[in-house]
Amino acid sequence: MSAGPDGRVDSWFLPLPSRPHAKLRLYCFPFAGGGISPYAHWAAGLPGEIEVVGVQLPGRENRLAQPPVTHLDDLVKALCAELPGHQPGLPFAFFGHCAGAMLAYECAQELWRVRTSLPVALFASAAPAPARWDGGRMTYALGGPDPLVAYQRLGAMPSDFGEDPELADLVRAQLGADTALYGRYVPVPRRPLPIPVVTFSAERDALVEADHAHHWQAHSSVAVRSHLHPGDHFSILDSPPPLFGALAAEIAALLAATTTP
């Protein structure tokens, strides 16, 4: 992954790949310590009417040379300043996994605050509701002498990942930056978003309770829908066919609703 569609190596948004005839753009926000690589294969599993766009943050993958953003408010404002100009004209939705769902939620709230176009839905995967977010718990879970080991316990990467010392040190640095970023995140009470929230939970998630979905209702004025999958915290992303089926059905219903006279 190198430059975005505008040719800039600092692009926040990278189509995976571009779909000129798409009917909806799905912006995918990375989990803590990650980039957009986990979403690189998603287009192959989703209908052609959906364009998958990775939200690439500074300090990772093709933006590795750039310093990471250290304050969530700054990150949200920077993203939302760029988003309205990113190939406007299509309906769009947000998908975020774990901490990525917190970032997606805050971006939706910021877009609403500045009175610009809102996503048609927020898809929150393996993520507690903002009011239930516990930055201390995340810091503890990824803390210890080696955060990479904790990450491997959660299923984020294979056990032999650390055999490449340079790559392992890189991920440790990203984890450290994001643990500090989201560990300090304290959501401010806000109005419920006027868009649907759809949650995806894992039965054996060691970080997020499977019954967390109903807490999201406090953050949406539309009925929250939820999907439960087997596996652990990262299984939703690692074994995506069930997720793809649920996402495709949810997005098809959203598109049908937006085109109904």
Please explain how this structure is put together.
The chain starts with 12 loop residues before the first strand and ends with a helix. Helix 2 crosses helix 3 (99-113) and helix 4 runs antiparallel to helix 6. It contains 8 helices and 7 strands; from the N terminus they run ββαβαβαβαααββαα. The chain has helices at residues 42-45, 72-82, 99-113, 135-141, 147-153, 165-183, 235-238, 241-259, and strands at 13-15, 24-29, 50-55, 92-97, 122-125, 197-202, 225-229. It is α/β, with parallel strands linked by helices. Strands 1-3-2-4-5-6-7 form a 7-stranded mixed sheet, with helices on both faces. Residues 1-7 have low confidence and may be disordered. The protein has a single domain (13-259), classed as Alpha/Beta hydrolase fold, catalytic domain (Rossmann fold), CATH 3.40.50.1820.
| Poorly predicted runs of 5 or more residues | 1-7
Cα end-to-end separation: 40 Å
DSSP helix fraction: 25-40%
- What do we call the CATH homologous superfamily? Alpha/Beta hydrolase fold, catalytic domain
State Rg: 17 Å
The level 1 CATH classification is Alpha Beta
Please state roughly what percent of the residues sit in beta strands, choosing from under 5%, 5-15%, 15-25%, 25-35%, 35-45% or over 45%.
5-15%
Instruction: Please state how the strands of the largest beta sheet are arranged side by side.
Output: 1-3-2-4-5-6-7
Largest sheet: 7 strands, mixed
The CATH architecture name reads 3-Layer(aba) Sandwich
Task: Work out the count of structural domains.
Answer: 1
Mean pLDDT level: 85
Number of separate helices: 8
